[in-house]
Request: fold
Amino acid sequence: MRELTPADPRRIGGYLVLRRLGEGRSGVVYLARSLRGEPAALKVVRPAYAADRAFRVRFERDVAAARRVTARRLVTVAAADTAGGTIWAAYPFVPGPTLTEAVAAHGALPPRTVGALGALLAEALLAVHGAGLCHRDIRPGQVQLTLDGPRLTGFGGSGTRIGPPGFLSPEQAVGGAIPVGPPSDIFALGCLLTFAATGRGPFGDGPPRELLRRAAFEPPDLADVPRGLLELVAACLRRDPLLRPSAGDLVRELTVPVGAGWLPGPLAHEIAARYAAPLPEPAPADLAAATGREPAERPEAAGVLGPVGELPPAEASPTADGPAAEGAGPDRPAGAAAPPDPPGRRRALRLLGGAGVLAVAGVGGGLLIRSGPNSPGVASDPGPGYAIGLHADLSGRRAAVGNGQQRGLTMAVDELNRLGNLPFTLAVTARDDAGDPALAASTARALAEDPAVVAVLGPTDDAALPAVGQVCGAAELPLLALSVGSPGDRELAPTLLHARPNTALAGLAAGVVLAGHGAERIAVLDDRSAGDYSGQTARAVNGTLDRERFHPIIRELDADTTDFTELAADLTAEGADAVVWCGYAEGAGRLAGALRTTGYAGLGLATERAIGPAFFRHSGRPPDDWFFLATYTDPRRDARSQSFGRAHRDRYGWDPEPYAAEAYDATHLLVSAMRDTVERRAGLTRGVLLDRLRASQYRGVARDLAFDSAGDYAAHGPLAYLYRAHHGELRFQGPITA
Reply:
């Protein structure tokens, strides 16, 4: 992606041009965005070719053909102008890398991935061939990889429609009496699968004429194609087109399960990072000229309302579970006399699921013992002492998340000190950044400079990660992030272990929920006032929605200035049967209230940053048609983590806050790696522990934990957990899997 040159256009049709994506002989491809904010890849034909009548006719024919075919894995023309002075075609923008880029960066792909690639590209070709058409340009550069499968591009708008040497069928290479049709696409697909599985084409390298000769007259070199794919690839590459399988044959032969795990871990994380990366903004002058008004200033993402945050009085929304119990505070012994919690605290507990009958039981790898400060310990040699640091927002707007992590960490450390039979003693060193990114670096330095601290859980919020990651990286201090959505730039956080699915996977989870409710016209709303978080979420959702099943309606707005009544009326008039709100709680609540006044009967979906009392406060009558995706579970209703919920209630007197169970799991994983390191080595250092953690796996009470070599989340398990707004509280619905 490169900056625009002075000669590049700033607006084409209804699109604002942002950057150069690439260029070829006949045109330039730009990254653009529609006036509604939807990103697009915009191909603009060079004037010399636009003046060529024969080229223009072919281009118009290709565009018309592309508009006749829709398929889930096929990227086709979204808009075009083939008659004006400037000839162009716009396609949905896919941030994922091409197959060429993926193989160059990560090497040959594993057989499972290649099999899925073949099956899903064959699905796209089945739709093309079923319409009586032929793609003619199947090659690695025309395949882009996403988290839920490949996308085949290059169909419609080329004006030439013929692939490169090395990926051309014999009938294309030599011409003659044999017509070029669907079997030619199958031959090219065989070449592509060989490239994906081996890192090279079946006819090697060389000048174009030599590659054409080999394809026409020599057998393909398939020596290192994996055995499970060899027979099928060889069938695709038969010289006689009548002997090649059809696209339907390949679909039946190659169909494999595809989900978030279809790609190898490092490649999947690269794709997730691309979806999470912010897209460039149009120049203010260009946006003003296009829309006829000055654009609203986009504020930086500052402190935001987290899952609980600032709370209304408890009396505002009664719960069917009765009043939340009053419990012990974080610094008071469990079982001691306690003053009532403030109304906000009681309301917070109901939002996370009310009280219940609680008991203690062991689960998974955790101990979950009944423990208070005066509980008897196990006499043993204490060994050396180490501390686990906590870098958290303990007093700011996301204090519920930070305090939840502190309590989960403290429970695990206390239990392990008592019954873990450890060759060392553990302590907790907690530091509060108050949700202020400006304090993040100094807070992290205090932990990094403490020689007893061997690892840190945190930070609470994405905004603090760059500063915290740099400090911990310089000190070789392992940093386990539980509630941060995206790992960001790895160079800024080299010791980060991302202990939850990336924000980019929210798109896959949203698609599962929307499909389950039969929604088709999906309004994806990017709230500019929520900063990069909303932008990342909107791109993830829009980029992974199945275009064959869903019709996205993309809107970019600012919750601080938007007339939600007008917005709701527009969405209802456009026939949206689901809205995905990508911002924070107040905007989600205002939208829910406005939609109700229009008679909207569809689905509302948001993420965990929209969970909170502000949603209920601004939505008016508590809606039952809104759902929320979060990466933390509810230990009150999740069968897997209920024992943790009971132990937490026994100790503190209330149900766990967000990420408490996840912090408990992360602590057990960390201490297990510490113990293994101490037992294998004379001493425990931060660098050695980091290496051990990257290779560790743990089955927790909330979710499984594992990391790849870069420290990104690599465990199998839920993409997210689903919650539903119900009578003024959130009800846990269960895990969402791909």
Observations:
- The CA atoms of residues 224 and 321 lie 63 Å apart.
- The first helix runs from residue 47 to 50.
- Residues 367-501+639-707 form a domain with the Rossmann fold fold (CATH 3.40.50.2300).
